[in-house]
Specification:
Strand order of the largest sheet: 1-4-10-9-6-7
Strand content: 35-45%
Bound molecules: copper (II) ion
Mean pLDDT: 80
Largest sheet: 6 strands, mixed
CATH class: Mainly Beta
Low-confidence stretches: 1-31
Length: 128
């Protein structure tokens, strides 16, 4: 329980950080820090576990379609629904099924996604 709570806390801190200099100096050996980069037209798989989203931070190219493929692998937690509040997107995530969501980030836009109650958090960070 302690370990799970620690990972969740770390994920929340990482997800809420919008500091690019911090991302550049991220410690690669920290297993709790999950980030990935996406280029134009890429698909990024986001696994939804009981602890949250992996990766929880996705760097994307602005102005290019990005497809997130959500796959929920755990019935623990409340990841059965994913919400993009800024884009008015709300989708069910059936267990072990892939659900694709395609969107085009604007320059310097940070697009948050959460579970249905806003507890699990992830962010798409768009750069030019
Ligand atoms: Cu929730």
């Amino acid at each position: 329980m302690k370990v799970a709570a620690g990972i969740l806390t770390t994920a929340l801190i990482a997800a809420s950080g919008c500091n690019s200099t911090k991302a550049e100096s991220s410690v690669q050996t920290d297993p709790a820090e999950t980030a990935t980069s996406a280029r134009a037209g890429e698909r990024v798989t986001v696994t939804v576990t009981g602890q949250g989203y992996e990766p929880s931070s996705i760097d994307a190219a602005a102005g290019a379609p990005l497809t997130l493929v959500f796959k929920r692998t755990s019935d623990q937690g409340c990841g059965h629904e994913v919400v993009f509040p800024d884009r008015n997107i709300r989708r069910e995530l059936p267990l072990n099924e892939e659900v694709e969501i395609t969107l085009t980030p604007a320059a310097d836009e940070h697009i948050a996604f959460t579970c249905g109650m806003g507890m699990l958090r992830g962010t798409i960070v768009a750069t030019r």
